[in-house]
């Protein structure tokens, strides 16, 4: 790193103030130089470029491009084939709801204390650490016709289904994989928050004759409110930007294309960088909108950084 | 009676959840130990004839180019993590220990960037990486991974607040300059935070698929993720080999998890909240 050299700086005058913070007025910029350059080059310049590409018909290769005004945005919202991929997000959103409820349930029962708690905690969390491609293969095999799932369900008398081949079923299956993968991180967050609740609250409630459900409803839930709200927002923006699991498992075939997969295909397969940029801007706008809504609806001090 | 039933249902739900997590993984493990012949005859849950049949692992490891993949992943991991720690801790140092006018703006700059889903900007980031000549080199993912990781900056700031400023001040009185304070006082005390960042970032990079997939299409530049993904073509029907490759990729994660559980829970809970 260049940093080592940067800090030799000008000689420091000996200071005798109580707050000896300032060696040279601009020292902090030396520490911030590298991160700010990276921040601008890899986040803000790309966003600015996306905006400017989105008004052109650029193909990503040629030196020139035409200014097309709002055509890309109009195309995005009027061509049903381009827009309907948003409905795929609804499957993942439903999956996220299931995921949050299950995570809450497991956090509550493990928080109250069970045998082999560390073991169950580890089991529930571990999928989150597994490589996405590996998860994709695990479930491609799991969902195969006549594969593990069909065999297990066959024991209960269910008929085999085309879990990934049936366009009406594929998104449910993929959303299920997503729940399998991400349940653990929600669970651990909730579990940590439950551990932080003072136990004497539960003891007092139990003395007063509160049932387990009442304790959960009136002690646990209110304490978890901030974290549930953040998790919900992350779930919404997460379901809008799903791409890895469907890309690896089905490549977006059979009705399983998500908005991000479509955007990436437009940009890198069909050389429609202009249209893809407009799509990226729409998604970015939606994610920022959802986050902003959360900040307005549920003011939360946890997210503050300073 | 009702209590006993409640306890029973509680454990039943835990056992069911355990089965849902484990069954898909165990079937992959079983499959990886079966021979091609056994694959054709047995069902998905049948046991391998020889529990020590590691032929598929050898095929996956050698033909699947897992060794160079491990090399590439390690190379990327090392430089990205090193840069993240250096850059992240310096950023946190500047933000937490210096008072300056544009601090709010700088902070806002990082926070807003954290909201931008990285995947959406790839359409434009691609042009920048290509313009730098980093496309199809291992520097492309390194640059992208080290580029402003807000989560690590946040972890560092949180931790740095617990380091008393009186330590810096007395060092300053002894004539140390700000870099000496950073290098000799802050950095050593940040060790637990550094461990957390290294683990979280390490897991994220080891598992990342899309960035190497997009920026390093060259066959020689496969990472763990992309090399495993390439099993899909040539071994399309050979699930025993694909399974062996998958097991090879999962085992390191399992080992890291078992050894570093405490750090991992802490890291991912602080990371997920931004």
Could you please describe the fold and organization of this structure?
The complex is a heterodimer of chains A (306) and B (274). Chain A is mainly α and 306 residues long. Chain A folds into two domains: 3-78, no CATH class; 80-303, Orthogonal Bundle (MetI-like fold). Chain A has 14 helices and no strands. Chain A has helices at 3-6, 27-53, 71-78, 80-83, 85-111, 117-125, 132-143, 148-155, 170-195, 199-207, 212-240, 244-249, 259-268, 273-297. Mean pLDDT of chain A is 86; it is low at 1-10, 14-18 and 301-306. By secondary structure, chain B is mainly alpha-helical. Chain B folds into two domains: 2-53, no CATH class; 68-235 and 256-272, Orthogonal Bundle (MetI-like fold). Helix content of chain B is 76%, strand content 0%. Chain B has helices at 2-32, 36-41, 55-63, 66-97, 103-115, 118-131, 139-146, 150-161, 165-173, 178-189, 191-207, 210-215, 224-229, 239-272. The model of chain B has no long low-confidence stretch (mean pLDDT 89). The interface between A and B is large, with 96 and 101 residues. Chain B: Keywords: Cell membrane, Membrane, Sugar transport, Transmembrane, Transmembrane helix, Transport. Chain B: Residues 70-260 form the ABC transmembrane type-1 domain. Chain B: Belongs to the binding-protein-dependent transport system permease family.
Mean pLDDT of chain B: 89
**Cα-atom Rg of chain B, whole angstroms?**
24 Å
Number-wise, the strands of chain A total: 0
CATH homologous superfamily label of the largest domain in chain A: MetI-like
Number of helices of chain A: 14
Going by helix content, strand content and strand pairing, the class of chain B is: mainly alpha
Classified by CATH, the class of the largest domain in chain B is Mainly Alpha
Indicate the CATH architecture of the largest domain in chain A: Orthogonal Bundle
Give the SSE map:
The complex is a heterodimer of chains A (306) and B (274).
Chain A: H1 3-6, H2 27-53, H3 71-78, H4 80-83, H5 85-111, H6 117-125, H7 132-143, H8 148-155, H9 170-195, H10 199-207, H11 212-240, H12 244-249, H13 259-268, H14 273-297
Helix pairs in contact in A: 2-14, 3-14, 5-9, 5-11, 6-9, 9-11, 11-14, 13-14
Chain B: H1 2-32, H2 36-41, H3 55-63, H4 66-97, H5 103-115, H6 118-131, H7 139-146, H8 150-161, H9 165-173, H10 178-189, H11 191-207, H12 210-215, H13 224-229, H14 239-272
Helix pairs in contact in B: 1-14, 3-14, 4-7, 4-8, 4-11, 8-11, 8-14, 9-10, 11-14
